[in-house]
From TrEMBL:
<dbReference type="GO" id="GO:0032259">
    <property type="term" value="P:methylation"/>
</dbReference>
<protein>
    <recommendedName>
        <fullName>uroporphyrinogen-III C-methyltransferase</fullName>
        <ecNumber>2.1.1.107</ecNumber>
    </recommendedName>
</protein>
<feature type="domain" description="Tetrapyrrole methylase">
    <location>
        <begin position="20"/>
        <end position="235"/>
    </location>
</feature>
<dbReference type="Pfam" id="PF00590">
    <property type="entry name" value="TP_methylase"/>
</dbReference>
<keyword id="KW-0808">Transferase</keyword>
<dbReference type="InterPro" id="IPR050161">
    <property type="entry name" value="Siro_Cobalamin_biosynth"/>
</dbReference>
<dbReference type="InterPro" id="IPR000878">
    <property type="entry name" value="4pyrrol_Mease"/>
</dbReference>
<dbReference type="InterPro" id="IPR006366">
    <property type="entry name" value="CobA/CysG_C"/>
</dbReference>
<dbReference type="GO" id="GO:0019354">
    <property type="term" value="P:siroheme biosynthetic process"/>
</dbReference>
<keyword id="KW-0627">Porphyrin biosynthesis</keyword>
<dbReference type="InterPro" id="IPR035996">
    <property type="entry name" value="4pyrrol_Methylase_sf"/>
</dbReference>
<dbReference type="GO" id="GO:0004851">
    <property type="term" value="F:uroporphyrin-III C-methyltransferase activity"/>
</dbReference>
<keyword id="KW-0949">S-adenosyl-L-methionine</keyword>
<feature type="region of interest" description="Disordered">
    <location>
        <begin position="1"/>
        <end position="20"/>
    </location>
</feature>
<dbReference type="InterPro" id="IPR014776">
    <property type="entry name" value="4pyrrole_Mease_sub2"/>
</dbReference>
<dbReference type="InterPro" id="IPR014777">
    <property type="entry name" value="4pyrrole_Mease_sub1"/>
</dbReference>
<keyword id="KW-0489">Methyltransferase</keyword>
């Protein structure tokens, strides 16, 4: 194991000051979807730098000495820039603290975890990454939407609805457009509520079937979970009419069709003689 690899070893211990950073993926929101390793990291923390999303209820269960720093971002409102978040992790770790960076989903799935690792590495701060259940997979699953299904699709593609493509034609890149147009894979869009109209327009302009099923899952894993379904060409209007809000995951493809798994259930019951 070289020096770089050692920085990422599970349970890696501190720098010269004893400080270290643990990037924790908190999952889609429900506390009971937090992993055991993540919970242990939180229980051993001196400082927790927390996002707005994820299992924020767990913060009330931390030991009383733990300092919580809120760096949550909302759509269009980023009170603590990413560069400052990076600096906070480094500053507290260099002061000797075990810093847990609590993030929604998984740190390395559109979570800027890589940027935070690089900032720590440049400062000589050891980093451990605790993977989390990505909302890209968990939220559709909790809504009964399989991202892959035999006979329907064998793959999925995850993109951010925040990112414009280099030609500024919309948030979807060529690979994502291919998924929608050709049905080669399920398309999952994180942070895509505000750009849903642009996603629809871009997909239709690229030749996608207007009848392609779309599902938008709000507040996945929480008591407020709600699923909105529509055809691709009507998805933006239906979502607006229902008042769909972030956080939400958008799923585009035939796996998003209502009733997809009902036939599977019927066949299973028939096979069991029910």
């Amino acid at each position: 194991m070289n020096v770089s690899d050692a920085r990422f070893a599970p349970g890696a211990r501190g720098s010269d000051t004893g400080g270290r950073v643990t990037l924790v993926g908190g999952g889609p929101g429900a506390v009971d979807l937090l992993t055991l390793r993540a919970w242990r990291a939180l229980q051993s923390a001196d400082v927790v730098v927390a996002d707005r999303l994820g299992p924020v209820e767990i913060l009330a269960e931390l030991p009383p000495h733990v300092r919580v720093v809120d760096v949550g971002k909302a759509p269009g409102h980023h009170p603590v820039p990413q560069e400052r978040i990076n600096a906070l992790l480094v500053e507290h770790a260099l002061a000797g603290a075990h810093v847990v960076r609590l993030k929604g989903g998984d740190p390395f799935v559109l979570g800027r975890g890589g940027e935070e690792v690089l900032a720590c590495a440049e400062a000589g701060v050891p980093v451990e990454v605790v993977p989390g259940i990505s909302s890209a997979v968990a939220v559709p699953g909790l809504a009964g939407i399989p991202l892959t299904h035999r006979g329907v699709t064998a793959g999925f593609h995850v993109v951010s609805g925040h990112c414009a493509t280099p030609d500024s034609s919309g948030p979807l890149d060529a690979a994502a457009l291919s998924c929608v147009r050709d049905g080669t894979a399920t398309l999952v869009v994180l942070m895509g509520v505000r750009s849903l109209g642009a996603i629809v327009a871009q997909s239709l302009a690229a030749g996608a079937d207007p009848g392609t099923p779309v599902a938008v899952v709000e507040n996945g894993s929480t008591p407020g979970q709600r699923v909105t379904r529509a055809r691709l060409d009507e998805a933006a209007e239906v979502a607006a009419a229902r008042g769909v809000r972030s956080p939400a995951v958008v799923v585009i493809g035939h796996v998003a069709a209502a009733g997809l798994l009902e036939g599977t259930r019927e066949r299973r019951l028939a096979g069991a003689g029910v």
